[in-house]
Each structure stands twice: as C-alpha cells, then as structure tokens.
Amino acid sequence: MDKETQRNIHVVLLVVLLVIQRSQCRSGGAPPTSCQTLLPSHGQNTPRTTTSPYAVLVSQNLYKPGETIQVMLRGLCQTILKGFLVQARRIDPRDPRSKQDPIGKFTLVPGARYECGNNESTLTHSSPYNGTSIRFNWTAPDTPQGHLQIFATIVLKFDTFWSKLTSVVIQDSTAQPLSSSPNDLRTPFIQPCESDRPTSPAPVTTTLATTSLFVVADANSTHNQTEQTTALSLTTVAESSTMQQWTTMTSFVTATQIKLTNKTAALQPPDWSKSTASEGTLEEAKCGQDRGCFIGCNSKSCDFIVMWSNLGDYFWFYIKARRLPGANGQYIALAFSSDQTMGSDSVVDCIQDGDQLSVHVSYNTRYGNTVMTHLNKVMLNQASVKNPGDDLLYCQFARKKIVEENKAHDLSTDVYLMLAQGSLLAGVKQEHSRVPVVSGRRLDLRTYDVSRQLQTPSILIKAHACLMLFAWLFCASIGTVMARFYKPLWPKTKICGRKVWYTVHRLCMLIAGILTIIAFVLIFYEVQGLSEISILRLKKLHPVVGIATTCLVILQVLMGLFRPSSTSVNRPVFNYGHWLLGIVTHVATVFNIVIGCGLQKAAVHFTIVYLVYAFAIYQIVVIVVLEIIFCNIRVNVKKQQSYSIYEMRNTIYSSTKDLLEDVNSEPPRSSLLKFILGTHILLIASITTTVIAMIVLMPSNAV
Predict the structure, then answer these.
(1) DSSP for residue 342
(2) What would be one Gene Ontology cellular-component term for the protein (predicted)?
(3) Pairing of β 437-438 and β 356-364
(4) pLDDT at position 300
C-alpha cells in the first residue's frame, strides 16, 4: 500500500469519526457542558426566542421536603419533541444559595439518562426521541430549598430548540412569599390546538396510577394557581413500559382551564390593524413575540410583510404589501410549498379589481395557476382585503391547517412561504411582476419564527450566469479578436510550438466551450428539465436559444480540433465555415445573455443589464476600429511592396484580410495594434469582473 493510499484511508477514517461525533451530539443527549448553561452542543446554533410550542407542566405548585411531583414536557399542537434536558432550580433572588445548582432527584425512565455527575438531579434523553410528550417524577430533597421551578431545554431539530423553558413556580411553604407574581416567571407558550383538547382515555391493560397534574394551558391567563381548580388527571403507565408507549398512553381526562377554539364557534383573530411598524418601513416590532413574520426588505426599503398566528385548527394570516404603481387591478398571492420552486403549491389569492375585493384559493402548476373555488369555504375563514387608498394593500384570512384535499398543503408540517404580486387584466391574474419571494428554509408556522429573506437567484443559477459571462464576455471576445486581426503579430514567437494568435485563440475558445457545457448542465439540473417556452415573449426564448448556441459551441470545438492542414483543398471551406459559425455563435450567445437578464429567476440588478449592453456595443466598436486600421495598413502596404509580394498577399489573404502571416517582420502600426489589444483585454476584464462580482455578491437564499 503506497503512502498516497494510506493518507486517503486516514482522511476517510477521520471524516467517519467526525460524523459519528456529530451524530452523538444530535441524539445521545446533552453534553456535560450543558449542566450550567442548559444549552445543547449544537454548533453555532442558538436558542429560539420565539414563543415556545412546548409547555413544562407539574402536578402541583407546592412541595414539602421529600415529596414527589410529576413533571411533563408537552409539545402543543402535535409538536414533536426530539430531545430534552431538565433540572429543578431555585428562583428566589433573595435566596443567597446558588441559582444554578440542580435541586432534587428525577426518577430514571426508559430512553433517558442522568447527566451532570450522574447525581440524579439532571435528566436528558439517551437516544433519539420522537414523541409529543414525556413524563417523569421529581423528588424534593429532605430539607427545604426555597421556591423552585422546573427548567427545561427542548429540541425540535438540530438547529431548532428552546432553552430554559420554565414551569409554574413550585412554592416552598416554609419560605417567604415571592416579591413578584409567580405567573410572571412562567415561560409563555403558544395557544393549544384542538388536538390538545381533553379526550376520554382508552382502556389500558397495564397497571395504571391516576395522578392530578397541575397545568395552565393559556399562557396569558392570570387566574389563581391552585391544585383544586386547575387539576388535570393523567393516566400513568408503569415504569416497565417503553417511553414511546408511555407517551402514546398519556391522555387528558379533565382540564377546566384549557382555552381552545371550538370548531363551531367563530374565530377570534388578533387585531393587527394598528401597525407597530417603524415610520417608513413595514417591519413590526412584535415579530417573534406574539406572531410569526416573513418580511421582504432590502437595504433601502420594505415591500411586504406576512404575519401569522396560531388559532387552533387555523392559522391567521395578515399581509401588507406595497401597491404596484399604476395598476388599477392587482393581486397578492401567498403560496405554501414543499420546495422553493413554483409547482404543486397551495395558494391564497388576495384580489383587488377596481372597487371589487375578494380572497380565494388556487393551485400552482408548474407553468400556471388554477382557481379552486370549491375549497374557499373549506379552507378559508373571515377573509378580507382592504384598499384604504394609500400605497399599501392589506389582506387577512384564516387558513385551515389540515384539509383532506390533495392540492391543499398540510400546514401542521414545515412549509416554504412564497409571496408573489402582479396585475390583473380583465379580472384575470397576469404573470407576477417581480420574482416571487421565497423563504430560505422551511418554516414551522406553529412557532413564531421571523424570516427576512428576499428571493434571489439560487447558487446554481448564479453559477450558470457567471460561467456564461466569463466564457462569452471575456474568453470568446479575446479569442475572436486574436484570430481575426492578430495573426501577423509576433511572427518569431511561438507558444507550445504554435504561433501566438493560434495558441491564445484555441485556449480561449476551448475554455469558453467547456464552461458553456458546464453551465448548460447546471441550469438543466436546476430547473429539472426545460423551462417555459413562448415565441410570443422574447425572454421566454432563452432556453431555446441556449440549447441552440450550446450545440453550435460543441460543433465549433469539434471543427477546431479537426481543422484541415494548410495544404488541404478543404482548408478555405473550413476557414469560411469556422469564421461564420463563430460569429453567429458569439452574437447569438451575447443576445441570449441579454434576454436571460430579463428572466424573473435571474433577478439581476438593472445595472448588470446595462453593462451587458455596454459590452455588446463596445465589442462592435472594437471590431469596426480594427477593420479600419487593417484596411489602412493594406493600402499602405500596397504602395510600398513590390508587385510580386502584393500578388502573393492578395492570393493568400484576400479572404481573411490578414497580412503576411509567413513573413518574419510585423506589419506597420503593430504597436498601435498591441496597444488596442491590451486596452481591449483590460476593458473586457473590468466589465466581466464587475458583472460577475455583482452576481456573486447578491445575497443567496438564507434564513
């Protein structure tokens, strides 16, 4: 085994070890460093600050030394619990004892393990967990410890977790009353859903014990916390059962304090008509606190904001967007999608057609949109559009989370949000006027997340654009000019055994061809096939022209590789064909770049379009200038050279307009030609670098 192979094996083993270590960090419970911070070791990820979808519940709010209390970690609205870390801690600021020391002992349950020195005061998961709740017993120490709370860190995903969630205060009867209200110390959580409503327990054959569990499900309620008035009975499976069985057999029996939206009752959505936005912006100060937000802003202004809140079986959405200037009829469309591309998306359309305002459900196909009127009453509730006359358009509606319809996305799962805006023609939606704004990742609408992502080209679209720009603005431009005008220069210099012009031309065009093919493959992978084509709209021809030019590029490269020898009778035919095909390919490709800049998915800044136009004009000017110079050179040479040399020149170069390729001296004004070439390379390098830098520096899809 050689050294190179050994090194590769070592690298593979190192990667495997790192992957194993990362997997343990995800599924094997909290590390010892979490004992004080209550933070999991999840890389650079930080705890969510949005309202928690989890509740920390305890069976009573008073304790005595040595007493056992039940603790439950509950995911509301069927929110999955992947991992946890739980402790009891002192919370009275007047107590001189440490507030970070874990107090008491937890009873070990299947699937969990002790942490922090294995002293039974801290419990965490020992293997991946996939339930909506978990319950265990906590036993107080034999001596009073002051007022306590249960602290928990709960993980939904590796990069999504809430830290230091607290239960109600478990008060010590021997200690002085707290100076502040115990309710103020409890971590708020989202409004419970219909799935959290108490149901009758199913018969269980296992030995069960019924225990009263204290809970206040409305995080904003202020009623007295007494065991008698807020009792919640739970059936507890014996410890011999598995954690998964334990979770599934936990059911609510009675809960007089849980406030849920009844299916037949009218929804009571929040009133967000009074904006808390800063002057001149659409950003809301309460985003992430009592609502989720999707904000479309750039460095200068904001175009829209989508807000949502959890209303039991529904999500309440409130949209504000800047009106399209000059449009009498327009629409805002909010789509829910499983990916970041158009197609198979559930859509809610807010329509303003003159004085007529409406909201309806539709569905995005890959190339169009279909109105789904029959779903309006099934999916929507209390929908309305407002057009107050200012530069904003308002829309609000309640969208049902789960609908038994193939073309209606289940909003209880993570989704991408898309927002599009466009005009109406005779009451019919036209293509959106700007690129749809898409969230950079899937959003869990049950949590009050905040996303500020504006849709920009994907990485593959950026790569496609940059490769094509470098190939045809830089490489092809130099290669074409060298072959057309610079054959007579540097007659005594050779690179790789070939004349300078030929080596540079071949290298530039070969690079251009390879980059074009790579860009062609990338864009086909990005769109998963062929994009929409329309001969009636110029920019929709971009895919067809792109395919045609790619075929021409491949043909050009093959022709260059199999060029006939200089003595072949086919050489003149090759010269004319290769020259003509090169000109057509270059012009068609630059033209396609121009129309490609107008595509919505490209989302390029208008400055880039102007720079491409400037390049096209400049390229024409350079060719015209060089043609004039060479025409003048030919006239002067005719006067200075003998008739025989003139006849030789005319025979060899009449078709190519090149000068004395086989002589050992450079033509007149060669210094001027070299200066023009250097200036040309510098200018197109500057234009190409500027355009590519603008594309690369545009923000990519992010959170």
Answers:
(1) S
(2) extracellular region
(3) unpaired
(4) 56
Q: How far apart are CA 346 and CA 418, in angstroms?
A: 10
The answer to whether 306 and 317 have CB atoms below 8 angstroms apart is yes
Residue 542: which of 552, 532, 528 has the closest Cα?
A: 532
- 3 state DSSP class of 276: coil
Residues 125-181: tens digit of each pLDDT: 887 777 888 888 999 999 999 999 999 999 988 888 999 999 999 999 888 888 877
Q: Where are the strands (E) in 426-538, listed by range?
A: 428-429, 437-438, 450-451, 494-495, 498-499
The top-level CATH class assigned to 292-451 is mainly beta
Angle at 150 between CA 144 and CA 152, to 5 degrees: 150
CATH 1.20.120 residue spans of the chain? 459-697
How many Å is the Cα radius of gyration of the chain?
35
Estimate to the nearest angstrom the gap between the alpha carbon of 313 and the chain centroid. 27
Question: What strands lie across the sheet with 302-311, from one edge to the other?
Answer: 380-386, 392-400, 314-322, 302-311, 292-297, 450-451
Contacts with 363 (C-beta within 8 Å, 6 or more apart), sequence order: 345, 346, 347, 369, 370, 372, 407
Say how far apart CA 100 and CA 88 lie, in whole Å.
9
Tell me which residue of 93, 90, 106 sits closest to 139, measured CA to CA.
106
User: What is the C-alpha to C-alpha distance for residues 281 and 436, in angstroms, rounded to an integer?
Assistant: 20
**CATH code for the structural domain at 459-697:** 1.20.120
Task: Please name which of 117, 91, 123, 92 lies closest in space to residue 105, comparing C-alpha atoms.
Answer: 123
What is the location of CATH 2.60.40.1210 in the chain? 292-451
Specify the long-range contacts of residues 653-662, CB closer than 8 Å, at least 24 apart: 655/572, 655/575, 655/576, 656/487, 656/575, 656/579, 657/627, 657/630, 657/631, 658/485, 658/487, 658/488, 658/630, 659/487, 659/488, 659/630, 659/633, 659/634, 660/488, 661/487, 661/488, 661/491
Cα–Cα distance measured from residue 40 to residue 30, given in angstroms and rounded to the nearest whole number: 5
Contact 55, 76 (CB under 8 A): yes
Provide the CB-side half-sphere exposure for 447 (13 A, CA): 26
| Helix, strand, coil distribution of the chain in percent, nearest 5 | 35, 25, 40
Instruction: Give yes or no for residue 320 having a pLDDT over 50.
Output: yes
Q: Which residues lie closer than 8 Å to 19 by C-beta, 6 or more apart?
A: none
Structure tokens at 688: 């190409």
DSSP state of 474: I
- pLDDT of 448-492, one tens digit each? 777 765 555 668 888 888 998 998 889 989 988 898 888 888 888
Which CATH class name applies to 46-248?
mainly beta
Rounded Cα distance, 83 and 160, in Å: 11
What is the token pair recorded at 608?
């880039």
Tell me the mean pLDDT in the region 212-240.
32
Query: What CA–CA distance (Å, rounded) separates 373 from 45?
Result: 43
Output the average pLDDT for the chain: 75
**Rounded Cα–Cα distance for residues 407 and 370 (Å):** 11
CB contact at 8 A, 89 and 149 = yes
Write the Ramachandran bin of 67: left for phi over 0, alpha for psi from -120 to 50, otherwise beta. Answer: beta
